[in-house]
């Protein structure tokens, strides 16, 4: 590569389905892919927010952008999203995390909802696309999970459990699919500047009695980087994992947390 030349990720013209991508980390991943010339189908439950995201992504003038307003936890929603994507070369699974709380207050229905959103829906999407990917000899699947998979957070028991289940499932399948050119990896975000983090900050402020500003400041000071992450950084990492250069990476859990996880492994 010539000095100063941008890296070509080799995925221009591919098709990607990105779940829950009208805002937050999903949106950041969709934007990074569009900038690489990937044709992207974005999804979200709120048609107004999705439409705004679609307009902004189309303005990039990269790959084609299609928007599908749907609930990806339903069979009908997944079918609509898949129908809009002519050929799924890249799949990004994503869902808002369950609310924090105390497990003593969660009934079976609460657990099932968490599993549907953060474990079973990604698995259903993977099942829909992986065999055609392997038949074509190329595929990239990236699951957006959580740093809580590596270091469980006490109040996020629903997320800890559901996302860990998905991680265990992917660990086995990813070793099979790579033989046919399909990689499956997980991105584990720590604290990023998203609506989700702002909601958790409000919850923590309500519990502690501190102001939201103080809670944010304390959170940043606990991170070696001394800041929360920028979603653009997350999107760029996702795009690399989807590239032709990442064909030897599979079954991995990439932690993006500014150094917050204290372990070696």
In a few lines, what is going on in this structure?
The chain has 265 residues and is α/β, with parallel strands linked by helices.
Task: Kindly describe this structure.
The chain is an alpha/beta fold and 265 residues long. 45% of the residues lie in helices and 14% in strands. The protein contains eight helices and seven strands. The chain has a seven-stranded parallel sheet with strand order 3-2-1-4-5-6-7, with helices on both faces. The longest helix is centred in the middle third of the chain and has 29 residues, at 108-136. It is globular and about 55 Å long.
Low-confidence stretches: none
How large is the share of residues in beta strands?
A: 5-15%
Cα separation of the termini: 32 Å
Outline the biggest β-sheet. Answer: 7 strands, parallel
What would you report as the Rg, rounded to the nearest angstrom?
18 Å
- What characteristic shape results from the CA principal axes? globular
What sequence of helices (H) and strands (E) makes up the elements?
EHEHEHEHEHEHHHE
The overall strand count is 7
Q: What value does the average pLDDT take?
A: 93
Proportion of helical residues: 40-55%
Total helices: the number is: 8
Q: Widest sheet: strand order?
A: 3-2-1-4-5-6-7
Class by alpha and beta content = alpha/beta
């Amino acid at each position: 590569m010539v000095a100063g030349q941008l890296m070509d990720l080799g995925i221009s013209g591919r098709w990607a389905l990105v779940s829950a991508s009208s805002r937050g980390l999903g949106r950041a991943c969709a934007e990074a892919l569009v900038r690489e010339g990937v044709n992207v189908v974005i999804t979200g439950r709120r048609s107004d927010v999705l439409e705004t995201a679609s307009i902004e992504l189309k303005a990039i003038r990269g790959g084609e952008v299609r928007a599908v307003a749907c609930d990806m936890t339903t069979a009908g929603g997944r079918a609509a999203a898949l129908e809009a994507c002519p050929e799924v070369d890249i799949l990004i699974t994503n869902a808002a995390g369950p609310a924090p709380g105390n497990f003593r207050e969660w009934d079976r229905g609460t657990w099932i909802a968490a599993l549907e959103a953060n474990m079973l829906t990604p698995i259903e999407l993977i099942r829909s696309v992986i065999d055609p990917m392997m038949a074509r000899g190329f595929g990239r699947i990236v699951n957006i999970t959580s740093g809580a998979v590596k270091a469980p957070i006490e109040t996020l028991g629903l997320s800890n459990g559901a996302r860990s289940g998905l991680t265990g499932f992917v660990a086995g399948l990813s070793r099979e699919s790579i033989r046919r050119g399909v990689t499956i990896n997980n991105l584990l975000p720590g604290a990023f500047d998203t609506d989700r983090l702002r909601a958790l900050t409000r919850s923590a402020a309500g519990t502690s009695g501190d102001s939201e500003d103080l809670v944010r400041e304390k959170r940043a000071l606990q991170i070696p980087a001394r800041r929360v992450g920028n979603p653009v950084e997350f999107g760029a990492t996702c795009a690399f994992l989807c590239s032709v250069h990442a064909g030897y990476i599979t079954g991995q859990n990439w932690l993006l947390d500014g150094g917050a996880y204290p372990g070696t492994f």
